[in-house]
Design goal:
Elements (H helix, E strand, L loop, with lengths): L1 E4 L9 H4 L3 H13 L3 E3 L2 H7 L7 H12 L2 H8 L5 E5 L12 E5 L13 E4 L4 H13 L12 E4 L5 H11 L3 E5 L12 H9 L8 E5 L11 H7 L4 H16 L11 H4 L5 E3 H6 L5 H11 L13 E4 L5 H8 L3 H11 L5 H14 L9
Parallel strand pairs: 1-2, 1-3, 3-4, 5-6, 5-7, 7-8
Antiparallel strand pairs: 9-10
Helix pairs in contact: 2-4, 3-4, 6-14, 6-15, 6-16, 7-8, 9-10, 9-14
Length: about 375
């Protein structure tokens, strides 16, 4: 993340003014030095801090050569990311000075854990974390980021994810929690994990901790059908199953679907569509499933709930692992980049990538 000081600190010239806040300043300088976050005080404040004898030689070098010497570039960087943290004196009620700022008391940074590298909390570190790491590499340039450092993913499990996130809130460790919605139709209930995480949203004491519930059912929904065809090019059975998903993707846009109600946003790409799922939601989501039926099986004239359990099969339970492996080569990443732009919810995917990079203190390209 990028930490900025509010202009309330301008004019604080003596060490007595800063005495209470020096542990926080030292933690922020150290995190800047380690590459975990950026620290951008005003130029005059950085110059003042560099005169204090309590600042170590290493921290002094950071202030002089990595902050003051690059000050204009750092400030420009702060205006191009999704958000920054505006640090204010204790007891000061302050609105953000810039549109992309979130306000936090400077004293919150006095705890070392508050300044450690951000964790990206996902359900499964290997699959979900691997997918987001690959998608960052695919879309970083699209999001105007020329490079990024290590991303620290942590698995929270399914049933235990909300509890893991709650612990991060208690410890005040910088964390971005990303949860599948597991929502099976527009306006339907969140899945158990997303529901529990959602209950914690708003309880975070500082803005360096946040959770995001996906606007799609699962991360598998972000895999375009044409990419899935490439992944399973040698599997005739999957290729046949993909015919259904190709139709759904084609009809998942206006005028066939309203924004936010697209078929490919909610369909289960791992297991397909089953009649037991439709029956479970026949009083609340029947209209959506009827339309989905007509889009996926246009030759059928009647919405049949009495046939075999599987209406159409899933692509693969290993779709995400296959996607991660597929994106291991640059040529495939370029193909993925071209395909995801066709998804109606591409802007949402890009926003998540931008959010991950903002938490991870990646340096964006300077706009000219």
């Amino acid at each position: 993340m990028i930490f900025e000081l509010s202009d309330d600190f301008t004019g604080w010239s003596s060490i007595d003014d800063w005495n209470t806040y020096l542990p926080a300043i030292e933690n922020l300088i150290n995190s800047h030095l380690q590459g975990a976050h950026y620290f951008i005080p005003q130029r005059s404040v950085a110059e003042t801090l560099s005169t204090f004898g309590c600042v170590s030689a290493r921290q002094l070098a950071v202030l002089q050569y990595d902050i003051l010497a690059r000050y204009s570039t750092l400030v420009a960087t702060a205006r191009t990311v999704s958000f920054t943290i505006l640090l204010v004196p204790e007891g000061v009620r302050r609105t953000p000075q810039q549109a992309n700022q979130k306000v936090m008391p400077l004293l919150s940074a006095a705890q070392p854990l508050t300044c450690r590298e951000a964790r990206i909390l996902v359900e499964n570190r290997e699959s979900d974390g691997g997918f987001w790491e690959r998608m960052v590499s695919v879309l970083a340039e699209e999001a105007n980021f020329v490079s990024f450092g290590p991303l620290y993913f942590e698995g929270g499990g399914g049933a235990t994810m909300a509890e893991t996130y709650r612990q991060k809130i208690v410890e005040q460790i910088p964390t971005l929690c990303i949860a599948d919605s597991d929502c099976e139709y527009p306006g339907g209930p969140l899945g158990a994990t997303a529901f529990d995480v959602n209950r914690l949203i708003g309880t975070e004491p500082i803005p360096t901790i946040a959770a995001h519930i996906l606007g799609v059912r699962e991360i598998e929904n972000f895999v375009p059908v044409k990419v899935a065809r490439d992944i399973y090019a040698s599997n005739p059975g999957v290729q046949q199953a993909l015919d259904f998903y190709e139709r759904l993707e084609r009809f998942s846009r206006e005028p066939h679907c309203a924004i936010g109600q697209e078929y490919n946003r909610f369909v289960d790409m791992k297991l397909g569509l089953r009649r037991s799922v439709v029956r479970r939601h026949e009083h609340t989501g029947a209209q959506f499933f009827r339309q989905l039926w007509q889009a996926s099986a246009p030759s059928e004239t009647e919405f049949d709930l009495e046939g075999p359990e599987t209406i159409f099969p899933g692509i693969s339970t290993n779709l995400i692992r296959g996607t991660i492996a597929f994106l291991g080569t640059p040529a495939n990443r370029a193909r993925m980049r071209a395909r995801v732009k066709d998804l109606v919810f591409f802007s949402e995917l890009l926003a998540i990538v931008e959010l991950i990079l903002a938490f991870s203190a990646a340096p964006p390209r300077q706009r000219v």
